[in-house]
């Protein structure tokens, strides 16, 4: 089973009275190491939202 690693970053916004995520950065990688390097190089930890999601294909 193959894994994909997605880096997502953005901020929280209010939309129609609900708090929702406004994702401004999304990119996929083949390894966790590549995804972590992307977070570091793009200084994404300063964003309100910064996470790596793992999907099994």
Rough shape?
Answer: flat
The largest sheet is: 3 strands, antiparallel
Mean pLDDT across all residues, rounded?
97
The N- and C-terminal alpha carbons lie at a distance of: 6 Å
Radius of gyration: 13 Å
Q: What low-confidence regions span 5 or more consecutive residues with pLDDT below 50?
A: none
Number of strands: 3
Which structural class do you get from the secondary structure elements? alpha+beta
- Count of all domains: 1
Helix and strand pattern:
EEHE
What would you say about this model in short?
By secondary structure, the protein is an alpha+beta fold. It contains 1 helix and 3 strands; from the N terminus they run ββαβ.
Folded structure, characterized:
With 57 residues, the protein is an alpha+beta fold. The chain has one domain (3-56). The chain contains 1 helix and 3 strands; from the N terminus they run ββαβ. Strand 1 and strand 2 form a beta hairpin. It starts with a strand and ends with a strand. The relative contact order is 0.39.
């Amino acid at each position: 089973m193959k894994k994909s690693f997605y880096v997502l970053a953005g901020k929280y916004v209010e939309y129609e009275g609900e708090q929702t995520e406004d994702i401004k950065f999304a990119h996929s990688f083949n390894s966790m190491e590549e995804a972590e390097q992307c977070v570091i190089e793009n200084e994404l930890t300063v964003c309100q939202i910064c996470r790596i999601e793992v999907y099994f294909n």
